[in-house]
């Protein structure tokens, strides 16, 4: 909720109000309760860590209390575990999203008490704050089956618990003192209770376990917790006389939890009763954040004003059919924010941005929706459910989803498996891939006037990927939308005006750059975020090349041969770690002096295929001393051994610093071949990356400045570093490179093949043969089966929709 509130407006602030004045967070070791300051510290430090403001929750806590030496007093086992949860969910997400069944609890060694020769344990299990019903023999000392244990017993067993667990769980085991037993007996016999000391009436806590089911494994398992992992137990000594509570636990004390997967009936029970499921907390979403704030807001919306607000919006949609509908939760929220004043609520609603996890109309038949997900786990939140429901109701079977985060697929059943996944994970996508993606969208829209394109992107930004300079989901969506809109508008103008709007005519005003601003306005993205996208050199180059290709065509249609690369470090001899390619510090075995520098290698990708690697060429990565040599040289050879690497189309040149993995020693490697020294044996850090398309590079040497290279902001790269690339025109002849590779007109046959190859459904080969026997072309048969989830009869009915013939190029 805090995240949602702060991201809605740069001027928004969050105020945390609590009763006591700010003091040091601490824990009462007698009752294992944390004070209000500790709760606030946990909330703020968790937010700082989860939002990436601090590297972990512990650093966030240190920032909150501003006293590093006092932080240790806050950490008891359960609280320590939950602090680690914050880091785990940020780095790895949840490992389990299903309810679990607590079957048995085994307690190894019986506690000893000064005032009692036996242990009378009672259990209490809380799930999301609600008490879980257990057998009376484990909760009520009056039950005939209630069991006591003595020191001769080696283990205390609580079996057949059948407790359904989901979300936050607290398991507490207490010893019932003799005074409490006597009081219960008097109450049963209707006798007046004896006046007893408070200590005699208390239950003595033995241990407490707090955990979240989202961080356990799926299915059956045993979780063992040692004495130091248990609240209360961790504070008890081995000698009962030495502890104030007169209870002692052996150092071998431990608790085993036996968990089993919940049955389908029990899992369905959790959903039917609308209990909070783990999936609601997997990743933050705008919709969930707004609902959470709305439900906890002190103001209740007026039913009369809710009706008037819905009527106002209905009239607005009648006047403007393209106006997006407003969710009822949003209508309730604006009334709460404005204290049930209708006019201010309408004004706020007009200014309020659309939720990023809503289904947003960008154009007449182009929609965008973004959800957070990770590690292939299906995104499950209220925002996605609402968006998909709207998608099904309004578009029926006419939609096709483009997953722009295709390297992280999930269960597409909620989308009827009608998804094509594009893996845009590696750096900036090339111009050829971007045109192929846009052509596929235009082809789909051309098949039926009711067809709809939905761009799906991952709103979750994996902080660990920043070091590889990858695009986040929103940047991918902005790139695809802007290029598609520019290309689509060009083709519409071409159809209308013919040759007057040809690619070589400067009169064309189509611009992907301008479409970026349109994307920012419709998605309510700040100017700073769009400007940040534009400052990425490869992103800026791709958008510029896309516009140039539309307006002027290609400079070069022949392959290039890359021969050499020279990396110039102009500030030779400077040992400043901010300026001279210092990625590693080592000790020279010969001179025993400390040496700073890097081990650079080069990789070249052509159309996403690796065509050159220093490691694969059998060249050892030599350590380069930062004080020696101003120029680092690389000579490229092809796979056939000839000098130079021939490239055509999209090219990515990446310079890495490599170091052997910690568990490997350089001496243990028998050689530097592909099998011994490769991605499996080294760790890589990017020094710089440069992407380009050969169609926009003039043959001959060219120089790159730091502003032309993708470099991490904190990378140790000289500010005036330059890179010289020696290249010349290839003598190889390539036919129709311009028309086939970077054409602005889509080819039906190619588009159909691409969509089928990337579709989530694999067509059944036997059914393809059945359709071929009925005179359906193979490619059409495959895609028709994918669109119908391998329903052969429906596929035959709709196969005529998918055309293989190229559309007429109007005016050309």
From TrEMBL:
GO MF annotation terms: phosphatidylinositol-3,4,5-trisphosphate 3-phosphatase activity
Stretches assigned to the C2 tensin-type domain: 97-262, 557-730
InterPro entries: C2_domain_sf (IPR035892), Dual-spec_lipid-protein_phosph (IPR051281), Prot-tyrosine_phosphatase-like (IPR029021), Tensin_C2-dom (IPR014020)
Highest taxon of the lineage: Eukaryota
Any one cellular-component term (Gene Ontology): cytosol
Name the record gives this protein: C2 tensin-type domain-containing protein
Lineage, highest ranks first: Eukaryota, Cryptophyceae, Pyrenomonadales, Geminigeraceae, Hanusia
